[in-house]
Amino acid sequence: MKLSIIIPAYNEGATIREVLARVESVAYPIEHEVLVVDDASTDGTAGVLAAPGVAGPALRVLVNPENVGKGSSVRRGLEHAAGDIVIVQDADLELDPGDIPALVRPIVEGRADAVYGSRFLARSWPEKMAFPNWAANRILTTLANALYGARLSDVSCGYKVVRTDLLKSLGLDCRRFEFCFEVTAKLRRRGVRILEAPISFAARTRKEGKKIGTADFFKAVWTLVKNKF
Known about the structure:
Number of helices: 8
CATH superfamily: Spore Coat Polysaccharide Biosynthesis Protein SpsA, Chain A
Oligomer: single chain
CATH class: Alpha Beta
Order of helices and strands: EHEHEHEHEHEHHEH
CATH topology: Spore Coat Polysaccharide Biosynthesis Protein SpsA, Chain A
Number of domains: 1
CATH architecture: Alpha-Beta Complex
């Protein structure tokens, strides 16, 4: 089996080198590849990716000709994924790639088709998570559980591991951060049970580059509702 790690990146020149170093430092239970999708960054991300010593044998870089959003970048990476399993790794330093093996293992062992990371299984409020983000997460997770009969604790977490053939079959059309909610809605409509595993989390602020905003909350609500009805 093989794992495809898709990393959508937009203006993450300050962190992408460290993220890739951490990704490559992990001992995965199966072979892996890394696909970075540079979403037309303007801050020098492309230069970092092309710098000596950054690209490894498992890395491929795709560059969007224009900025199209995280969801569109994930979908592009998925088109090129050669693995049997896909995980999305954010290009900032909020999520620790060291958690990936525990997320992948249930699928490798045939115990699950989809596994989500959760920042809330080990704590009720992740350290340094801003109140608006915490409140939005609680509302969206409650809504997803109510609409789709799920028992999730963290629907917004970026770590989502899914069998590649299953993920490709969902017919995703997300463009921005609604990726998490479209995947959840379509998996649950198929009756797919989603396992969760606790992960670590290091919150970053908007000043540090966090991009999700109020409009994305309402887009997430609409995505959950429209895919139900």
